[in-house]
Amino acid sequence: MTSVDPDPPAPPVTGRASERLVTIERFLAERQPEHATGDLTALLYDLALAGKLIASKTRRAGLTDLLGRSGVTNVQGEEQQNLDLYADEVIAGLLTRGGRACALVSEERAEVRVVDGGGPYVVAYDPLDGSSNIDANVSIGTIFGVFRRVSTEGGPTPQDWLRPGRDLVAAGYVLYGTSTMLVYSAGDGVHAFTLDPEVGEFLLTWSDLTFAEDPSYYSFNLATSSQWDRGVRRFIEWIERDDTPTASQRYIGSAVADFHRNLLHGGIFGYPGTVEQPAGKLRLLYEAAPLAYLAEQAGGAGSDGRGSLLDVVPDDIHQRTPVFVGAEALVRRIEEFVADG
Ligand code: FBP
Q: Which run of H or E residues covers position 334?
């Protein structure tokens, strides 16, 4: 029997390490397609600035009254953390004043926020993903997805935000961890920037990130596995066998952080449906679809167990979905096991 190293050294990151000092502003401007109006670039700047502001608060949360619960319950039935509300306010404020967004979909708001006189984009976002980890000082993040408005007359309508992930023009996240990183794609690969707190700039760390072929990690909350689809349980049995890819189990409980580690070192993150919650926990529009978009841009895949998450058209802005995102071979393997039932 081969002995499995429980803590293998992380393989090198599959992406081009930046040899030059490049700010996100410069990178976005250099990568802007010829026909671009600059609106998307400006909107991504606003999201980067929101990330800097939220990072400055999360870093000092224990020194301020921002830790803890707000006593208010959101549309998901979850008690909102003070930092959830702060992050939502910062993002909504910047995107409303920025003039590039016509509608905002937020995990923390029951309804869509329509921006008078807004621009051509709809932004769906989770202001702070992994809220249950805030007080424990574990990595959390902001997730966002950007759609181009399709309606032409009057104000934006549900046809502008009840969209499949396939229609995204950009997606990304800001990870508040050992360092603050912004990872995004606008349809031309996945790129990562690190916030240099001394100069207050997001500087390019890796461009064109892709999922490593050999997976190092699988990330599932196994505590609910007894309630999962038989196919998903068989996948876990398969990946834990000695004669299958050597992957270690790692689960942070912040989807953005679990996704990020697996993007850098190869692996899969999954949040299956259960008997009690067949649609799972994660939300399609502002958690699952943006992560699936990034996964596909990085040569991986995103699935609900039966097909691509990017082809699911939501009926509701807070619709939930089972989620499996990561290296393509592993996502396909899950789909096969689920199909076998
Ligand atoms: P929010 O914190 O944005 O509500 O996100 C949900 C989430 O925290 C994910 O980030 C994470 O993957 C999952 O829930 C953890 O759930 P559980 O505690 O059931 O494993």
A: helix 328-340
pLDDT per residue over 304-330, tens digit each?
999 999 999 999 999 999 999 999 999
Q: Of 280, 142, 314, 294, which is closest to residue 302 (Cα–Cα)?
A: 294
Cα–Cα–Cα angle for 66, 69, 74, rounded to 5 degrees = 115
Residue 253 CA to ligand 1 centre (angstroms): 6
CA distances from 88 to 47, 50, 75 (A): 12, 10, 14
Atom of ligand 1 nearest to the CA of 256: 10
What torsion do the CA atoms of 280, 284, 286, 288 make, to the nearest 10 degrees?
70
Pocket, ligand 1, Cβ cutoff 6 A: 78, 107, 126, 129-132, 221, 253-255, 271, 281
Q: What is the pLDDT of residues 266-282, one digit of tens each?
A: 999 999 999 999 999 99
Retrieve residue 179's tokens: 């360092």
**Measured in angstroms, how far is the CA atom of residue 266 from the centroid of ligand 1?**
21
For ligand 1, the distance from its centroid to the CA atom of residue 271, given in whole angstroms, is 9
Choice from 82, 132, 268 to test ligand 1 binding pocket (greatest atom count within 8 A of CB): 132
Q: Who has greater pLDDT, 108 or 66?
A: 108
User: What is the band of 212 on the pLDDT scale with cuts at 50, 70, 90?
Assistant: confident
pLDDT of 120 > 80? The answer is yes
83: closest CA among 99, 59, 103? Answer: 59
Please tell me the residue having the least CA distance from ligand 1 atom 16: 253
Rounded to an integer, what distance in angstroms lies between the CA atom of residue 238 and that of residue 81? 38
What's residue 2's pLDDT? 47
Q: Which amino acid is at 239?
A: I
Task: State both tokens at 297.
Answer: 């841009």
Q: How far is the CA of 196 from the centre of ligand 1 (A)?
A: 28
Question: What does DSSP assign to residue 278?
Answer: T
Q: How far is CA 273 from CA 73, 235, 334, in A?
A: 23, 14, 13
Segment 239-295, tens digit of pLDDT: 998 887 779 999 999 999 999 999 999 999 999 999 999 999 999 999 999 999 999
